[in-house]
Amino acid sequence: MKRFMAGLLSLIGLIAALAGAAAKYLTAEQIESSASWLGFLARVIPPESYWLGLAIGGGALFAGFGIWYILERRAENREMEAASAAPASQSAMMYQADNADIRARVRDLLRRSWGRPLLALILGALPIAIVHGGVHVFLRPFQTVWMAASAVVVEFMELWGGWKLALPIIATGTLPDLTVISSDILRAVPGIALLFAAWICVFQPIRVSRAGYFLQLLYGNKPSPLTTLDCFGNKYARAAGGMAYSALWLGLWAVLAAAVPVGIYAGGMTIINMYPEELNSYLLWLAPSLIALTVIAFIALAWAFVNRWLAYSFVPCVISSQKGLPARRAMRASRYLARGHKLRMLGMWMSFLYYFLPAIGATILTPLVKPLGEVFGFTEYLSVTLRRFFLIVTLANQLLWLYVGPLAWSSFYAFYLEMKRDYRENHPTRLYILGILPQAPVPYKQDAAPRGSVDAETPLRRRRAGAVASAVEGAMDRTKTG
Fold it and tell me: CA 237 to CA 319: how far, in whole Å?
Protein backbone atom coordinates (compact mmCIF):
# COMPACT_ATOMS: atom_id res chain seq x y z
CA MET A 1 0.00 0.00 0.00
CA LYS A 2 2.80 2.44 0.89
CA ARG A 3 4.77 1.62 -2.24
CA PHE A 4 1.65 2.02 -4.37
CA MET A 5 0.90 5.44 -2.89
CA ALA A 6 4.55 6.51 -3.28
CA GLY A 7 4.47 5.50 -6.95
CA LEU A 8 1.19 7.32 -7.47
CA LEU A 9 2.51 10.49 -5.82
CA SER A 10 5.71 10.36 -7.87
CA LEU A 11 3.71 9.98 -11.09
CA ILE A 12 1.36 12.86 -10.22
CA GLY A 13 4.31 15.01 -9.18
CA LEU A 14 6.21 14.28 -12.37
CA ILE A 15 3.20 15.15 -14.51
CA ALA A 16 2.62 18.39 -12.56
CA ALA A 17 6.27 19.39 -12.80
CA LEU A 18 6.49 18.70 -16.54
CA ALA A 19 3.19 20.52 -17.24
CA GLY A 20 4.24 23.53 -15.17
CA ALA A 21 7.68 23.66 -16.82
CA ALA A 22 6.12 23.40 -20.29
CA ALA A 23 3.70 26.23 -19.52
CA LYS A 24 6.45 28.39 -17.98
CA TYR A 25 9.28 27.98 -20.47
CA LEU A 26 7.41 27.20 -23.71
CA THR A 27 5.07 29.48 -25.57
CA ALA A 28 1.75 28.35 -26.95
CA GLU A 29 3.20 28.45 -30.48
CA GLN A 30 6.05 26.15 -29.50
CA ILE A 31 3.67 23.70 -27.88
CA GLU A 32 1.37 23.66 -30.89
CA SER A 33 4.32 23.31 -33.30
CA SER A 34 5.59 20.25 -31.45
CA ALA A 35 2.15 18.63 -31.17
CA SER A 36 -0.90 20.44 -32.44
CA TRP A 37 -3.31 18.50 -30.25
CA LEU A 38 -1.54 19.86 -27.12
CA GLY A 39 -2.63 23.38 -27.95
CA PHE A 40 -5.49 23.25 -25.45
CA LEU A 41 -2.91 23.17 -22.59
CA ALA A 42 -2.45 26.90 -23.05
CA ARG A 43 -6.13 27.39 -22.26
CA VAL A 44 -6.37 25.11 -19.21
CA ILE A 45 -3.16 25.98 -17.30
CA PRO A 46 -3.26 29.27 -15.33
CA PRO A 47 -0.35 31.42 -16.59
CA GLU A 48 0.30 33.17 -13.26
CA SER A 49 3.92 32.80 -12.13
CA TYR A 50 3.29 31.54 -8.60
CA TRP A 51 0.92 28.83 -9.86
CA LEU A 52 3.57 27.64 -12.30
CA GLY A 53 6.25 27.79 -9.60
CA LEU A 54 4.02 25.80 -7.26
CA ALA A 55 3.39 23.19 -9.95
CA ILE A 56 7.10 22.81 -10.75
CA GLY A 57 8.39 22.87 -7.17
CA GLY A 58 5.62 20.80 -5.62
CA GLY A 59 5.62 18.33 -8.49
CA ALA A 60 9.39 17.87 -8.29
CA LEU A 61 9.13 17.41 -4.51
CA PHE A 62 6.42 14.74 -4.81
CA ALA A 63 8.24 12.96 -7.64
CA GLY A 64 11.57 12.99 -5.78
CA PHE A 65 10.06 11.75 -2.52
CA GLY A 66 8.12 8.97 -4.25
CA ILE A 67 11.13 7.74 -6.23
CA TRP A 68 13.36 7.90 -3.15
CA TYR A 69 10.86 5.93 -1.06
CA ILE A 70 10.46 3.23 -3.72
CA LEU A 71 14.24 2.83 -4.06
CA GLU A 72 14.69 2.67 -0.29
CA ARG A 73 12.00 0.03 0.13
CA ARG A 74 13.47 -2.00 -2.72
CA ALA A 75 16.93 -1.87 -1.13
CA GLU A 76 15.49 -2.91 2.25
CA ASN A 77 13.62 -5.82 0.69
CA ARG A 78 16.78 -7.03 -1.04
CA GLU A 79 18.76 -6.85 2.20
CA MET A 80 16.07 -8.72 4.10
CA GLU A 81 15.84 -11.42 1.43
CA ALA A 82 19.62 -11.83 1.39
CA ALA A 83 19.93 -11.88 5.19
CA SER A 84 17.00 -14.08 6.07
CA ALA A 85 16.65 -16.39 3.09
CA ALA A 86 14.88 -19.44 4.53
CA PRO A 87 15.46 -22.95 3.17
CA ALA A 88 12.95 -24.16 0.66
CA SER A 89 11.70 -26.72 3.18
CA GLN A 90 10.61 -23.88 5.49
CA SER A 91 9.50 -21.21 3.02
CA ALA A 92 7.37 -23.59 1.00
CA MET A 93 5.56 -25.27 3.86
CA MET A 94 2.59 -22.91 3.63
CA TYR A 95 1.19 -22.31 0.19
CA GLN A 96 -0.71 -19.05 -0.13
CA ALA A 97 -2.87 -18.50 -3.19
CA ASP A 98 -2.40 -15.30 -5.14
CA ASN A 99 -5.19 -13.21 -6.62
CA ALA A 100 -5.05 -14.94 -10.01
CA ASP A 101 -5.48 -18.36 -8.39
CA ILE A 102 -8.37 -17.11 -6.26
CA ARG A 103 -10.17 -15.73 -9.31
CA ALA A 104 -9.55 -18.96 -11.22
CA ARG A 105 -11.10 -21.09 -8.46
CA VAL A 106 -14.06 -18.73 -8.09
CA ARG A 107 -14.63 -18.70 -11.84
CA ASP A 108 -14.65 -22.53 -11.89
CA LEU A 109 -17.15 -22.57 -9.04
CA LEU A 110 -19.49 -19.97 -10.57
CA ARG A 111 -19.44 -21.66 -13.96
CA ARG A 112 -21.79 -24.27 -12.55
CA SER A 113 -24.28 -21.68 -11.29
CA TRP A 114 -23.96 -18.02 -12.19
CA GLY A 115 -27.61 -17.00 -11.96
CA ARG A 116 -28.12 -17.62 -8.24
CA PRO A 117 -25.26 -15.37 -7.03
CA LEU A 118 -26.42 -12.70 -9.48
CA LEU A 119 -29.97 -12.96 -8.13
CA ALA A 120 -28.59 -12.72 -4.58
CA LEU A 121 -26.76 -9.49 -5.44
CA ILE A 122 -29.88 -8.04 -7.05
CA LEU A 123 -32.04 -8.93 -4.04
CA GLY A 124 -29.48 -7.38 -1.72
CA ALA A 125 -29.39 -4.15 -3.73
CA LEU A 126 -33.15 -3.94 -4.26
CA PRO A 127 -34.18 -2.35 -0.90
CA ILE A 128 -31.59 0.41 -1.00
CA ALA A 129 -32.29 1.00 -4.71
CA ILE A 130 -35.98 1.53 -3.94
CA VAL A 131 -35.18 3.99 -1.15
CA HIS A 132 -32.65 5.88 -3.27
CA GLY A 133 -35.01 6.00 -6.25
CA GLY A 134 -37.88 7.37 -4.18
CA VAL A 135 -35.74 9.98 -2.43
CA HIS A 136 -34.12 11.20 -5.64
CA VAL A 137 -37.42 11.36 -7.51
CA PHE A 138 -39.55 13.06 -4.85
CA LEU A 139 -37.08 14.99 -2.66
CA ARG A 140 -34.06 15.55 -4.98
CA PRO A 141 -31.65 16.51 -2.14
CA PHE A 142 -28.33 16.34 -3.96
CA GLN A 143 -29.71 17.91 -7.13
CA THR A 144 -30.97 20.87 -5.07
CA VAL A 145 -27.62 21.46 -3.34
CA TRP A 146 -25.66 21.01 -6.57
CA MET A 147 -27.79 23.44 -8.56
CA ALA A 148 -27.61 26.10 -5.84
CA ALA A 149 -23.86 25.78 -5.27
CA SER A 150 -22.97 25.59 -8.97
CA ALA A 151 -25.05 28.71 -9.71
CA VAL A 152 -23.09 30.70 -7.09
CA VAL A 153 -19.71 29.42 -8.33
CA VAL A 154 -20.57 30.09 -11.99
CA GLU A 155 -21.67 33.62 -11.12
CA PHE A 156 -18.40 34.20 -9.25
CA MET A 157 -16.34 32.91 -12.18
CA GLU A 158 -18.23 35.08 -14.65
CA LEU A 159 -17.68 38.11 -12.40
CA TRP A 160 -13.90 37.58 -12.42
CA GLY A 161 -13.60 36.58 -16.07
CA GLY A 162 -13.42 32.79 -16.05
CA TRP A 163 -11.90 30.13 -13.87
CA LYS A 164 -8.28 30.83 -14.87
CA LEU A 165 -8.57 34.22 -13.22
CA ALA A 166 -10.90 32.99 -10.47
CA LEU A 167 -8.43 30.35 -9.21
CA PRO A 168 -5.67 32.85 -8.26
CA ILE A 169 -8.30 35.07 -6.63
CA ILE A 170 -9.58 32.13 -4.57
CA ALA A 171 -5.94 31.30 -3.66
CA THR A 172 -5.55 34.76 -2.12
CA GLY A 173 -8.57 34.27 0.12
CA THR A 174 -11.46 35.79 -1.87
CA LEU A 175 -14.16 33.10 -1.96
CA PRO A 176 -17.66 33.05 -3.48
CA ASP A 177 -20.51 33.97 -1.17
CA LEU A 178 -21.86 30.53 -0.32
CA THR A 179 -24.17 31.77 2.45
CA VAL A 180 -26.94 32.35 -0.09
CA ILE A 181 -27.42 28.60 -0.53
CA SER A 182 -28.19 27.98 3.17
CA SER A 183 -31.95 27.87 2.52
CA ASP A 184 -31.48 25.28 -0.25
CA ILE A 185 -29.32 23.15 2.03
CA LEU A 186 -32.01 23.25 4.72
CA ARG A 187 -34.59 22.05 2.19
CA ALA A 188 -32.29 19.17 1.26
CA VAL A 189 -31.66 18.04 4.86
CA PRO A 190 -34.72 15.69 5.12
CA GLY A 191 -33.78 13.82 1.95
CA ILE A 192 -30.12 13.48 2.96
CA ALA A 193 -31.13 12.34 6.47
CA LEU A 194 -33.47 9.72 5.00
CA LEU A 195 -30.71 8.39 2.73
CA PHE A 196 -28.29 8.24 5.66
CA ALA A 197 -30.81 6.37 7.80
CA ALA A 198 -31.45 3.88 4.99
CA TRP A 199 -27.72 3.38 4.57
CA ILE A 200 -27.24 2.63 8.29
CA CYS A 201 -30.43 0.64 8.93
CA VAL A 202 -30.83 -1.21 5.62
CA PHE A 203 -27.73 -1.35 3.48
CA GLN A 204 -25.16 -2.05 6.21
CA PRO A 205 -27.01 -5.06 7.73
CA ILE A 206 -27.57 -6.44 4.21
CA ARG A 207 -23.80 -6.51 3.77
CA VAL A 208 -23.61 -9.02 6.65
CA SER A 209 -26.24 -11.38 5.24
CA ARG A 210 -24.71 -11.03 1.75
CA ALA A 211 -21.37 -12.12 3.21
CA GLY A 212 -23.11 -15.08 4.81
CA TYR A 213 -24.60 -16.14 1.47
CA PHE A 214 -21.30 -16.00 -0.42
CA LEU A 215 -19.34 -17.72 2.35
CA GLN A 216 -21.80 -20.62 2.26
CA LEU A 217 -21.52 -20.70 -1.52
CA LEU A 218 -17.73 -20.81 -1.40
CA TYR A 219 -17.80 -23.72 1.04
CA GLY A 220 -19.68 -25.82 -1.51
CA ASN A 221 -23.23 -25.35 -0.22
CA LYS A 222 -26.22 -24.17 -2.25
CA PRO A 223 -27.84 -21.39 -0.20
CA SER A 224 -30.98 -19.67 -1.35
CA PRO A 225 -30.59 -16.15 -2.80
CA LEU A 226 -33.10 -15.03 -0.15
CA THR A 227 -30.28 -15.56 2.37
CA THR A 228 -29.10 -12.03 1.50
CA LEU A 229 -32.20 -10.72 3.34
CA ASP A 230 -31.79 -12.91 6.46
CA CYS A 231 -30.50 -9.94 8.44
CA PHE A 232 -34.07 -8.63 8.85
CA GLY A 233 -34.87 -11.16 11.54
CA ASN A 234 -33.46 -12.14 14.90
CA LYS A 235 -29.96 -11.36 13.57
CA TYR A 236 -30.76 -7.73 12.82
CA ALA A 237 -29.63 -6.18 16.13
CA ARG A 238 -26.20 -7.80 15.99
CA ALA A 239 -25.66 -7.04 12.30
CA ALA A 240 -26.90 -3.45 12.50
CA GLY A 241 -24.99 -2.69 15.71
CA GLY A 242 -21.68 -4.07 14.49
CA MET A 243 -21.89 -2.37 11.10
CA ALA A 244 -22.99 0.94 12.66
CA TYR A 245 -19.98 0.84 14.99
CA SER A 246 -17.68 0.24 12.03
CA ALA A 247 -19.37 2.97 9.97
CA LEU A 248 -18.95 5.41 12.88
CA TRP A 249 -15.18 5.00 12.92
CA LEU A 250 -14.92 5.10 9.15
CA GLY A 251 -17.06 8.24 9.12
CA LEU A 252 -14.76 9.88 11.64
CA TRP A 253 -11.79 9.19 9.38
CA ALA A 254 -13.72 10.65 6.42
CA VAL A 255 -14.60 13.80 8.37
CA LEU A 256 -10.98 14.12 9.48
CA ALA A 257 -9.74 13.80 5.89
CA ALA A 258 -12.12 16.55 4.76
CA ALA A 259 -12.07 18.91 7.74
CA VAL A 260 -8.34 19.17 8.44
CA PRO A 261 -7.32 20.48 4.98
CA VAL A 262 -10.24 22.93 5.01
CA GLY A 263 -9.25 24.05 8.51
CA ILE A 264 -5.63 24.54 7.47
CA TYR A 265 -6.63 26.66 4.47
CA ALA A 266 -9.30 28.65 6.31
CA GLY A 267 -7.03 29.24 9.30
CA GLY A 268 -4.14 30.34 7.15
CA MET A 269 -6.30 32.72 5.13
CA THR A 270 -7.77 34.13 8.33
CA ILE A 271 -4.30 34.88 9.70
CA ILE A 272 -3.24 36.48 6.43
CA ASN A 273 -6.35 38.66 6.37
CA MET A 274 -5.84 39.66 10.02
CA TYR A 275 -2.42 41.16 9.27
CA PRO A 276 -2.68 42.42 5.67
CA GLU A 277 -0.05 45.14 5.97
CA GLU A 278 2.58 43.01 7.70
CA LEU A 279 2.13 40.01 5.38
CA ASN A 280 1.46 41.80 2.11
CA SER A 281 5.10 41.63 0.99
CA TYR A 282 5.21 37.89 1.69
CA LEU A 283 1.91 37.08 -0.03
CA LEU A 284 3.50 35.81 -3.25
CA TRP A 285 5.02 32.83 -1.43
CA LEU A 286 2.65 32.55 1.54
CA ALA A 287 -0.42 31.75 -0.61
CA PRO A 288 1.27 29.00 -2.69
CA SER A 289 2.84 27.55 0.46
CA LEU A 290 -0.54 27.44 2.18
CA ILE A 291 -2.09 25.72 -0.84
CA ALA A 292 0.78 23.21 -0.95
CA LEU A 293 0.34 22.46 2.76
CA THR A 294 -3.40 21.99 2.25
CA VAL A 295 -2.85 19.60 -0.68
CA ILE A 296 -0.25 17.58 1.25
CA ALA A 297 -2.58 17.30 4.26
CA PHE A 298 -5.46 16.21 2.04
CA ILE A 299 -3.37 13.53 0.27
CA ALA A 300 -1.98 12.18 3.55
CA LEU A 301 -5.38 11.99 5.25
CA ALA A 302 -7.06 10.58 2.13
CA TRP A 303 -4.38 7.89 2.15
CA ALA A 304 -5.15 7.18 5.82
CA PHE A 305 -8.88 6.99 5.04
CA VAL A 306 -8.33 4.46 2.22
CA ASN A 307 -6.11 2.45 4.56
CA ARG A 308 -8.85 2.33 7.21
CA TRP A 309 -11.50 1.48 4.62
CA LEU A 310 -9.45 -1.53 3.51
CA ALA A 311 -8.75 -2.51 7.12
CA TYR A 312 -12.49 -2.57 7.97
CA SER A 313 -13.55 -4.39 4.78
CA PHE A 314 -13.74 -7.79 6.51
CA VAL A 315 -16.15 -6.61 9.24
CA PRO A 316 -19.33 -8.04 7.60
CA CYS A 317 -17.50 -11.34 6.94
CA VAL A 318 -16.40 -11.63 10.57
CA ILE A 319 -19.87 -10.76 11.93
CA SER A 320 -21.48 -13.34 9.65
CA SER A 321 -19.05 -16.22 10.15
CA GLN A 322 -18.14 -15.80 13.84
CA LYS A 323 -21.46 -16.13 15.67
CA GLY A 324 -19.90 -16.14 19.14
CA LEU A 325 -17.78 -13.03 18.61
CA PRO A 326 -19.25 -9.74 19.91
CA ALA A 327 -20.10 -7.53 16.98
CA ARG A 328 -18.15 -4.57 18.35
CA ARG A 329 -14.96 -6.67 18.27
CA ALA A 330 -15.39 -7.59 14.61
CA MET A 331 -13.64 -4.39 13.58
CA ARG A 332 -10.53 -5.36 15.54
CA ALA A 333 -10.51 -8.84 14.00
CA SER A 334 -10.92 -7.37 10.51
CA ARG A 335 -8.04 -5.00 11.12
CA TYR A 336 -5.72 -7.85 12.11
CA LEU A 337 -6.79 -10.11 9.23
CA ALA A 338 -6.17 -7.35 6.69
CA ARG A 339 -2.80 -6.32 8.13
CA GLY A 340 -0.11 -6.73 5.49
CA HIS A 341 -2.63 -7.63 2.77
CA LYS A 342 -4.29 -4.28 2.00
CA LEU A 343 -2.38 -3.77 -1.21
CA ARG A 344 -3.36 -7.26 -2.38
CA MET A 345 -6.96 -6.52 -1.51
CA LEU A 346 -6.86 -3.27 -3.45
CA GLY A 347 -5.24 -5.12 -6.35
CA MET A 348 -8.07 -7.66 -6.23
CA TRP A 349 -10.66 -4.92 -6.77
CA MET A 350 -8.53 -3.07 -9.33
CA SER A 351 -8.09 -6.25 -11.37
CA PHE A 352 -11.71 -6.03 -12.51
CA LEU A 353 -11.34 -2.52 -13.93
CA TYR A 354 -10.17 -3.76 -17.32
CA TYR A 355 -13.72 -4.98 -18.00
CA PHE A 356 -14.81 -1.33 -17.91
CA LEU A 357 -11.98 0.27 -19.87
CA PRO A 358 -14.41 1.40 -22.62
CA ALA A 359 -16.55 3.27 -20.07
CA ILE A 360 -13.48 4.75 -18.37
CA GLY A 361 -12.07 5.93 -21.70
CA ALA A 362 -15.41 7.39 -22.79
CA THR A 363 -15.78 9.23 -19.48
CA ILE A 364 -12.31 10.75 -19.85
CA LEU A 365 -12.81 11.74 -23.49
CA THR A 366 -16.25 13.35 -23.05
CA PRO A 367 -15.04 16.63 -21.44
CA LEU A 368 -12.17 16.79 -23.96
CA VAL A 369 -14.49 16.92 -26.97
CA LYS A 370 -14.89 20.70 -26.78
CA PRO A 371 -11.19 21.70 -26.44
CA LEU A 372 -10.14 19.11 -29.03
CA GLY A 373 -12.91 20.35 -31.31
CA GLU A 374 -11.51 23.86 -31.10
CA VAL A 375 -8.03 22.56 -32.04
CA PHE A 376 -9.13 20.35 -34.92
CA GLY A 377 -12.13 22.43 -36.00
CA PHE A 378 -14.98 20.01 -35.21
CA THR A 379 -18.43 21.05 -36.27
CA GLU A 380 -21.19 21.34 -33.67
CA TYR A 381 -22.95 18.30 -35.10
CA LEU A 382 -19.78 16.19 -34.84
CA SER A 383 -19.16 17.31 -31.24
CA VAL A 384 -22.72 16.44 -30.20
CA THR A 385 -22.48 13.08 -32.01
CA LEU A 386 -19.22 12.23 -30.23
CA ARG A 387 -20.70 13.06 -26.82
CA ARG A 388 -23.72 10.86 -27.51
CA PHE A 389 -21.50 8.04 -28.73
CA PHE A 390 -19.37 8.18 -25.58
CA LEU A 391 -22.54 8.19 -23.45
CA ILE A 392 -23.87 5.12 -25.26
CA VAL A 393 -20.53 3.33 -24.80
CA THR A 394 -20.53 4.14 -21.07
CA LEU A 395 -24.09 2.87 -20.56
CA ALA A 396 -23.63 -0.25 -22.69
CA ASN A 397 -20.44 -1.17 -20.84
CA GLN A 398 -22.40 -1.32 -17.56
CA LEU A 399 -24.11 -4.50 -18.79
CA LEU A 400 -20.90 -6.34 -17.95
CA TRP A 401 -21.86 -6.01 -14.30
CA LEU A 402 -24.09 -9.05 -14.89
CA TYR A 403 -20.88 -11.05 -15.32
CA VAL A 404 -18.40 -9.09 -13.20
CA GLY A 405 -20.65 -8.61 -10.15
CA PRO A 406 -20.82 -12.25 -8.95
CA LEU A 407 -17.17 -12.84 -9.89
CA ALA A 408 -15.88 -9.76 -8.06
CA TRP A 409 -17.83 -10.29 -4.84
CA SER A 410 -17.13 -14.03 -4.75
CA SER A 411 -13.41 -13.32 -5.25
CA PHE A 412 -13.43 -10.83 -2.38
CA TYR A 413 -15.04 -13.29 0.05
CA ALA A 414 -12.66 -16.03 -1.16
CA PHE A 415 -9.83 -13.60 -0.40
CA TYR A 416 -11.18 -13.31 3.16
CA LEU A 417 -11.13 -17.10 3.51
CA GLU A 418 -7.56 -17.16 2.23
CA MET A 419 -6.44 -14.53 4.74
CA LYS A 420 -8.22 -16.40 7.52
CA ARG A 421 -6.47 -19.64 6.54
CA ASP A 422 -3.12 -17.86 6.45
CA TYR A 423 -3.76 -16.43 9.91
CA ARG A 424 -4.76 -19.84 11.24
CA GLU A 425 -1.52 -21.39 9.99
CA ASN A 426 0.88 -18.61 10.97
CA HIS A 427 -0.77 -16.92 13.99
CA PRO A 428 -3.00 -19.54 15.68
CA THR A 429 -2.60 -18.03 19.16
CA ARG A 430 -3.80 -14.61 18.09
CA LEU A 431 -7.07 -16.14 16.86
CA TYR A 432 -7.89 -16.98 20.48
CA ILE A 433 -6.94 -13.45 21.56
CA LEU A 434 -9.21 -11.95 18.93
CA GLY A 435 -12.03 -14.30 19.87
CA ILE A 436 -12.23 -16.09 16.52
CA LEU A 437 -13.10 -19.74 16.97
CA PRO A 438 -10.53 -22.06 15.38
CA GLN A 439 -12.61 -23.78 12.73
CA ALA A 440 -11.27 -26.83 10.97
CA PRO A 441 -9.19 -25.77 7.95
CA VAL A 442 -10.63 -26.49 4.53
CA PRO A 443 -7.94 -28.62 2.82
CA TYR A 444 -6.73 -27.99 -0.69
CA LYS A 445 -6.88 -31.61 -1.84
CA GLN A 446 -9.66 -32.49 -4.23
CA ASP A 447 -10.79 -35.58 -2.34
CA ALA A 448 -11.09 -33.72 0.98
CA ALA A 449 -12.67 -30.48 -0.26
CA PRO A 450 -16.46 -30.28 -0.59
CA ARG A 451 -17.56 -31.01 -4.12
CA GLY A 452 -17.89 -27.76 -6.03
CA SER A 453 -16.32 -25.62 -3.30
CA VAL A 454 -13.87 -22.84 -3.93
CA ASP A 455 -11.09 -24.97 -2.42
CA ALA A 456 -11.45 -27.62 -5.11
CA GLU A 457 -8.18 -28.13 -6.95
CA THR A 458 -7.62 -26.36 -10.27
CA PRO A 459 -4.88 -26.89 -12.89
CA LEU A 460 -3.13 -23.72 -11.71
CA ARG A 461 -3.20 -24.91 -8.09
CA ARG A 462 -1.98 -28.40 -9.11
CA ARG A 463 1.00 -26.96 -10.97
CA ARG A 464 1.97 -24.70 -8.06
CA ALA A 465 1.40 -27.41 -5.47
CA GLY A 466 3.63 -29.73 -7.52
CA ALA A 467 6.35 -27.09 -7.65
CA VAL A 468 6.13 -26.60 -3.88
CA ALA A 469 6.30 -30.35 -3.25
CA SER A 470 9.35 -30.69 -5.54
CA ALA A 471 11.11 -27.84 -3.71
CA VAL A 472 10.42 -29.46 -0.33
CA GLU A 473 11.63 -32.89 -1.46
CA GLY A 474 14.79 -31.40 -2.98
CA ALA A 475 15.58 -29.51 0.22
CA MET A 476 15.05 -32.66 2.31
CA ASP A 477 17.34 -34.68 0.01
CA ARG A 478 20.05 -32.04 0.25
CA THR A 479 19.73 -32.05 4.03
CA LYS A 480 20.10 -35.84 4.21
CA THR A 481 23.10 -35.95 1.88
CA GLY A 482 24.72 -33.03 3.77
Answer: 12
